């Protein structure tokens, strides 16, 4: 007999939608049919969509910061918030600090996450110190052990890689078949802009946006694409914010380069105007992230890109810092210059509702495209497919039951994170997750997280489909 039957749902995949029953046994989907027979647990999903559980491929949890700043979410609260937002898998980063061995970094993150996660997780690595030891031994061994992706930064004092280092990392990624995620913003240009703005007394959070204009992102995107062409490796440009970097990606795709791209909720739901706060005050710090949100023209461009395949995945870039906290946005110095405000905003719980509402409910993208961007493509890009990312016989029973017509006003009071605000306060959405099912077990239902920390498993990943697998 089946463990669980989900009846009367409309099942949506990246390819199509069908009305059928879903039969679950031992955590996996074993039947999709008109009539699957009896089950121990009955779930009536009349009026709901059955979507593959959301896969958030870009999440920062418990990542150490300089200057005494701490992230608002660790693995427990971050994955709890993810479950409440309709997600069953998240991919946080394991950051190598300069001078640290990668292996050591990875072990520290495993220790921090152990027994804490409500949803399945798997780490991307962040390479900040690509020494011969790291490139020659540690990384190849880690890729073979299932850490098949890593992120590199083209900016930030304590993380930036120069072009020679980027090329070495790309070259290794080709040899080992690992997916590189690139944070594309030009370091020197940002430093120049920040200095000039500060000299002119322009220090409010809003000037964070002026210090990193689209040209800075466009240039770095172009440079990363050129290095990827040179080394003949697929890469993913992450958190693409607007029209200008998008045009570089479109150029690359048109020329047959194997370039993938990600965008995030902040680039369709916020603009640089939000960084002005109430009156160019510190309230704007709530929206400081990098790249910064742009303007309405860029939002329009992002929608075109979400439709036409310029973007492959849609992730949150959840990177939460408490607002009213000297260990968060209000750290020492932050009120004297935007340069000290920690970069990043929370969004793991609001990613799916915002894309669904602004995209599907408003007719900008299809349901199938929504599923592709938020579950199927991330699974394929990061070596989790076909176990994750679709509703199919043999796959893990990771399913989100979604009410497409529920109207909700997003507010901090609804959130399950440990941050003290949401940048989407007051945002009205149509469409909301009702129930999140992880490997057959309900972990979230009607507003309540009912799973336990430790329900989530750690996933060793395979090779990205970008390598033709
Ligand atoms: O501002 C952001 N996005 N902070 C998080 C780190 C990153 O660059 O993704
Ligand atoms: Zn980044
Ligand atoms: Zn980011
Ligand atoms: Zn990020």
Automatic annotation (TrEMBL):
The record, for SUPFAM superfamilies, names: Composite domain of metallo-dependent hydrolases, Metallo-dependent hydrolases
The cofactors required by this protein are: Zn(2+)
For whether the record's keyword set contains Methyltransferase, the answer is no
User: What keywords is this UniProt entry annotated with?
Assistant: Hydrolase, Metal-binding
Q: Which residues carry this modification: N6-carboxylysine?
A: 151
UniProt PTM:
Carbamylation allows a single lysine to coordinate two divalent metal cations.
What's the superkingdom here?
Answer: Bacteria
Gene3D superfamilies for this protein: Metal-dependent hydrolases, Urease, subunit C, domain 1
| Residue ranges the record marks as coiled coil | none
Q: Which GO terms describe its molecular function?
A: hydrolase activity, acting on carbon-nitrogen (but not peptide) bonds, in cyclic amides; metal ion binding
Stated family: Belongs to the metallo-dependent hydrolases superfamily. Hydantoinase/dihydropyrimidinase family.
User: Which named protein is this?
Assistant: Dihydropyrimidinase
The species is Rhodobacter aestuarii
